[in-house]
Amino acid sequence: MNKKLLSSAFLLVLIGIVSIVPISLFANNNLDRLLSREAAAEDIELYFSIIDQQHGNPYQYISRKEFRQLVDETIARLPESIPYKEFDVLLTQLNNKIRCGHTVVSLDTDFLKSATNLAQFFPYPVRIIEGRYFIDFEDGDLPLGSELISINEQAIAGMTEQLSALTVTDGFSSTKPIREIESRFGYYFFLKYGAASSFMVTYKTPNGSIHQAEIAAIEGNRMLANNYYRPVYKQHERYYHFTHLDAIDSLQTLVLTLNTFQANPDWFYEKLASRYNEETKEFDFENLVIDLRLNEGGDRRILNFLYEFIGGGQLNDPSKTVVRNQDIALADYLVGINGSNSSAEVIAKADAYLKQHFTNATEKGFEGEVQNWHNTFDLGIHWKGTAFKGQIYVLTSGKTFSAAADLARILSDMPNVTLVGEETGGGHKARTANMLLNYSLPNTGVNLQVPVIYEEFLNVSNQSTGRGTFPDHLVTQTYEDLLAKKDTAFEFTLQLIGQRSSFGTN
Question: Which class is 237-319+374-428+463-497 in CATH?
Answer without folding.
Answer: alpha beta
